[in-house]
Amino acid sequence: MKKISQWLAIVIIVSALAGCSCRDAIRNFNTHIGTEHTTTEVKSAIFKAGAKNLWVLNEKSPGVITAIRRNHDYYAEIRIKYTATSYSIDYTDSINLHAKRGKISRDYNRWVASLNNDINANLH
Hints:
By secondary structure, the protein is of the alpha+beta class. The protein is 41% helix and 35% strand. It has three helices and seven strands. It has helices at 2-20, 39-52, 106-123; strands at 23-25, 29-32, 56-61, 64-71, 74-82, 86-95, 103-105. It has a five-stranded antiparallel sheet, with helices on one face. Helix 2 packs across helix 3. The longest helix has 19 residues, at 2-20.
C-alpha cells in the first residue's frame, strides 16, 4: 500500500508540473517602427497580418483595433493601438487558454508573436 501511495504522489507531481509547462507569461508587444510610414500604412499592415494569421479585426476608433481569434474551443481577444511610428499588441481576454496570474497557453503567445512578425514584415 505504501508503494501505491508513493507512485500516486509521483504521478500527481509529474502531472502538475506538466500542466504548468504549457503556460508562459502573457506576451504583449510595443514596437517602434520609425517615421517612414503613415498611419494608414501601419493600419493596412496590421489588417493584412491579421487576415493572414486568422484574426478578425475591427477598428474601434482611430488608432485602436480589436482583434479576435477563434480556434476550435479557444478564443483570444487583443487590442492593437497604432500610430505612424509605433504599435502595441495587448492581451484583453480569452476563453479556454488557461489565462491566470499573468500566464496563458503557449498557443496564444505563438499566435500574437506570429501576428507581430507579420506586421513587421509588412512594414519593411
